[in-house]
Amino acid sequence: MLAQHNPVVIIPGGPGLPHDYLETLEGAAMEDRVVLLFDPVGTGNSSALPSVDAAADSPNLLGTASLVAQTRAVVDFFKVNAFHVLGHGTGAEAALELGRSLGKASPRPPGPEPEAILSVILASPVLGENELSPDFLEALRTPYIKDGNEPPLCLETAMAGRSSDGFAGGVAAMNQDRRSKGSAAAAAGPLACPVLITYGKRDVIGDKTVTGITQGLSGGDAPVESRRFEESGHLAHLDEREEYVSLVKNYVTFIDDAWSGKSGETKK
């Protein structure tokens, strides 16, 4: 039986960042796998948020529930059933919420089926109050070091961008009171699908935080794994591009092959 390589849906962090800085993850695409990226409301080419004052009265526009709904709208638009989801930074909470509601642990039956998430990748997850990495703090005290975490040009461009209508996009959205803060409770209890946590040695999160997230998500039948990138900060997909994209591609391919009953494959 030929493996079906399912789409990977990418959720940007922020709030207030469009998809641009995550475009290197398009490298995980294959002839029969697409990678879906989108601009959340108020960023990039998406619709604008209301004015800053109006948005402050509607905090849900920047909250996790809104990001979950937007992701599901993208999935519905492209008529995707089974897929993998990767959430970066604050987008990790939305990825977890989706995985908790749609995660599946066993192969699907033939024919049409409801939406199913096959795996969740938490890229440098920001969930509640994180324990700052000692290497990140050291980098802050070291002149001219690239991490700690100095944004690359593509991220600076993304942050400076405006929504199509020119209101409250980019930095303006990031400066608003998000109200719905990242919550460590999102990582309480196992998911039905496998979870991979990735982070950099000089990330804003450290080993202690990742261990806590791993323990919070463990206890079920699905594995929870983590990978630290030794030459990276908060943007491992840029700092160690080839290695990171290869990991994501191999990870989701391994899971797709397992669902299709294809043996003899290993993750790298």
Describe the structure.
The chain has 268 residues and is of the alpha/beta class. It has one domain (8-259): 3-Layer(aba) Sandwich (Rossmann fold), CATH 3.40.50. The protein is 32% helix and 13% strand. The chain contains nine helices and six strands, in the order ββααβαβαααβαβαα. The protein has helices at 52-56, 64-77, 91-102, 134-140, 153-160, 171-175, 207-217, 236-239, 241-259; strands spanning 8-11, 35-37, 82-88, 116-123, 195-200, 224-229. The protein has a six-stranded parallel β-sheet with strand order 2-1-3-4-5-6, sandwiched between helices. The longest helix has 19 residues, at 241-259. The protein is globular, with a radius of gyration of 18 Å. The protein starts with 7 loop residues before the first strand and ends in a 9-residue tail after the last helix. Mean pLDDT is 75; it is low at 141-146 and 162-182.
Task: Supply the key terms.
13% strand, 268 residues, Rossmann fold, 6-stranded parallel beta sheet, 9 helices
Radius of gyration: 18 Å
CATH architecture: 3-Layer(aba) Sandwich
Whole-number count of domains: 1
Distance between the termini: 23 Å
According to DSSP, the number of beta strands is: 6
Instruction: Report the CATH superfamily.
Output: Alpha/Beta hydrolase fold, catalytic domain
Question: What is the 3D form?
Answer: globular
User: Are there runs of 5+ residues with pLDDT below 50, and where?
Assistant: 141-146, 162-182
Using the coordinates above, name the CATH class.
Alpha Beta
Helix amount = 25-40%
Could you spell the SSE succession in H and E letters? EEHHEHEHHHEHEHH
Count the DSSP helices.
Answer: 9
Mean of pLDDT: 75
Strand percentage lies at: 5-15%
